[in-house]
Amino acid sequence: MKKAEIQEHGFITYPRRFIAYRWFKPLLAGLLFGAFYMPMSLLVLVLGAAASGSRDAAMKLIKGLGQAYDGFDVYSAGGVIATVGSVAAMIPALFLASKIVKDRPFSSYGSSMGGFRLGVFLKSLLPALAAVVPMIVLMVIDGRTGENRFSAAGFILVTLIGPLQCIAEEYLFRGFLMQTLGGWFRIPWLAILLQVIPFALGHPYSIAGVLAVSILALALGITTHYTKGIEAGSALHVVNNMLAFYGSGLGFGKIASETTWKDFSLTAAAAVIFIVLVVILDRKFHWYDRIRKDDVTPFNEKTVRRMEARKKI
Description:
The chain has helices at residues 3-8, 25-50, 55-65, 77-88, 90-101, 118-131, 133-142, 152-185, 188-201, 207-227, 231-249, 261-285, 296-312. It is mainly α. Helix 6 (118-131) packs across helix 11.
C-alpha cells in the first residue's frame, strides 16, 4: 500500500469519514452501551454464581467481587464466568449500541481497514510473546509460591473467555473511546493520552500498578494508532493477561491489588519491546497495511439512500 493510502486509513479520526458522523452521536452510543451492558453483566454475574455449585461458593464469589483483585477468582468455572465473562459482555453491548445509533458500522471500532483482522491478531501474538519473555523468565526463577488453584472447568473457561475479555477492553477503550476523542479533537496524540486515564482508573491497583497499567494503555494506544486497528494491541493485552491468569492459577505468584515496582518495570519493558518489534515487523513484512474491505463507501451509500427515502415520506 502506498503511503498516501495508509494515511487515508488513519484509525483515531476514522469516525469522521462516515457522513452520518455528528459529535454528539458517540455520547448517545455510550449511553446505550451502558444501558445494555449493565443488565448483560448482571446476568453473567448471576450465571457465574449459579455455576459455583453451592450457595456457600456463590456467596464467597460475590463477596470476592467487592475485594478488587484480592478476591479475583479466575480459577473456578463460576469465578471465570463472573469476573472475566462480565467484561467480555462489553462486546455485544457495544455492538447493539452501534446498530441503534447508526453513525458508523461496528466494524469501524476494530480497525480502519475493514474491521477486526484475525490474521493480524494471530501474527501479532508472536511479538507479544517475545515482549513478555522477561516476565516469564522471572516467574520461573522465583518458582512456585502456591499450589494449583485451577479446577478443570475453570482452566478451560479462562482459556476460552480470557482472550475475549481483553479484546472487549480494546474495543471499548482503544476503539470506541479513543476514536470518540479523535473525532472530537482531531489530534491523534491527544486522544492516545486521554484514553489512558479511564483505563488506568478502571484497574484498582496500588500506585505502582496504576502506573504500570498506564504505561500499558499508552503502548496499546500507540500500537493501535500505528497499526490502524486494535488487533496488535489486543494480542499484547491477551498475552499479558493470560500470563497473569495462568501464572497465578498454577501457583507462580498471585493476582493482587498491591503491586511492586518490579511489576511496573517489567510491564514498561514489555511495552517498549512490543512497540519496537511491531514497527520492525511492519517495515520488513508490511503486516499492518492489509485492507480487509472498504467500510466507508457502502455505509455512506446506504446512509444516503436512507436519508433520501425519508425525504420522500
